[in-house]
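User: Teach me something about this protein's shape.
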Amino acid sequence: MRDDLIIRREDPGDVRPTEQLHDAAFGIPQGRSESIERELLRGLRADGSVIDELTFVAELDDEVVGHVVCSRASLAGQPSVGLGPIGVRPDLQQQGIGAALLMAVVASADRIGEPALVLLGDPEYYGFFGFVPAAVLGIGAPGPWQEHFQALTLRAWRPEMAGPFRYAPAFERLT
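Assistant: First, the predicted structure itself:
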């Protein structure tokens, strides 16, 4: 990882750079004017679902090169955390920036007493950070993504917290 990388909480001036970053990181599907991740990010922000304490940018030379957003979700009817999207500028991927962002979320979520983080992603990649299939923990997926639906339990986790998971409403509105 680069010595000059700065991980900090997102601030209001990061809206445009982070939206552009997700377009670059994920690409814009044919027939769309923006990435699905950018649409999701805008929806999460508009709804007030973003958890500010768990949303970070990565900077190099005063430029936003990575971003992770966490949003308020529910697990068995109680507040929970949905992690993602997380993106890194394409020319800087596989250099530890995404890992640094993820570690900032994990440490911060544990510090503020969140019981678990839930995401959709590559099991091999996120497994390295301790994520496991959510079903193993009794966390029910809100869609047909069993293989990619994962969770990481933190110190506040108790098995009786398990149950059905539901993302913030912006996830459900994706087209």
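Now, about its shape. The chain is about 25% helix and 30% strand. The longest helix spans residues 97-111. If you'd like, I can walk through any region in more detail.
User: That's plenty for now, thanks!
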